[in-house]
Design brief:
Blueprint: H1 2-32, H2 34-50, E1 53-55, H3 78-86, H4 91-110, H5 112-117, E2 126-129, E3 134-137, H6 142-169, H7 173-177, H8 180-187, H9 193-227, H10 237-259, H11 262-287, H12 297-308, H13 313-323, H14 334-341, H15 347-371
Antiparallel strand pairs: 1-2, 2-3
Helix pairs in contact: 1-9, 2-9, 3-4, 6-9, 6-10, 6-11, 9-10, 9-15, 10-11, 10-13, 10-15, 11-12
Amino acid sequence: MGQWDSRDHGMSVRLATAWQLTRDTFRQANASGIAWMMFAVTGLCVLLCLSVSVSGDVELHGHDEPPLFLPAASPRTVVPSIALVLAGAGPFETAALTAAGAGVWHSFEVNPAEARREGVDTIGGQVSLAFGAVSFPVGRERDDAVRFIELLLAGGVAGMLGLLLALVWTAGFMPTYLEPSAASVLLAKPDPRWLLLLGKYLGVVVFVAFHVTLFVILTWLALGVRTGVWDATYWHCIPLLLMQFAIFYSFSVLLAVLTRSTVACVFGAVLFWLLAWGINYGNVMAHAVPEGQSLPGFTLLLTDAAYWISPKPIDAGLILFNSLDAQQHFDKPEVFRLLEAGRVFSPWWSILSSLLITVALLALSAYEFEATDY
């Protein structure tokens, strides 16, 4: 009984330590102004979403039907021509009837009332930003117009750009925490060093998770209030973006333990991301080489080994792209198509191997911290 009591007491002490370190991270962020910079970015994006309005849009399909869109080529000539050829019309008949069809389409475009009488809906809506300062025509229905804006926010502000900014802004947390003047007070406590390091790491991750969640919730609410569209798919970006930050910030922690330099953490984290991206891209390209020009087996082995022992930002980008169903609005980048076509890519193995890299980096950081003299 006493053994279980001591274990419970030890666990509660460790949880209390992690909680105190998390609170300390939030106080440090407020004092340094980093929290207020993140609030400012979120506030600007919320104001942008509150300025969005969609007017004059047409519902293109029922909610129980899949959306169908015309091909990229204009229906004035291509679609009627194909239909006539399949129907067995000759070349002169096809040309004459295609020209007549083009005239009908042109009449519908310049006279929407006539189109409505014929049962054809004409899309004449607009999406306005900045309270009308910027506007563009609705290419599809209202739901898709809002989804387009959410994809820009998720992929741009909260995606790669947001990840790099978060790494840069939080790079100074750990070196400041490990300064001899601050660490000597912490090390006087009975808590093990690995717990102090891991607690601070988790505190920074919780801090970033708070701001990412706040950003997504507030922009989602602002768009929903203004447009009446409540797209829950947008929420998928929260765990994916947070996972990416946790992976690359673990390398920043290792640099902080080794150097205690904020500058080294800033440049090191960014360079580590660039290196991981290059390895990921090189592996995709190596497996995309045609069979007749295949690379030597040893080269492929090296690229695969580097791929599995490093983070995978391109894989993460593809997972986010598919999770948000972004192909409805954007052409899938060539590197994403090649990655999916290759034999190496597996979403679950990609995530698991990246998390294992994070654990290895944190374990190495804890080992170095234990061996550091203060």
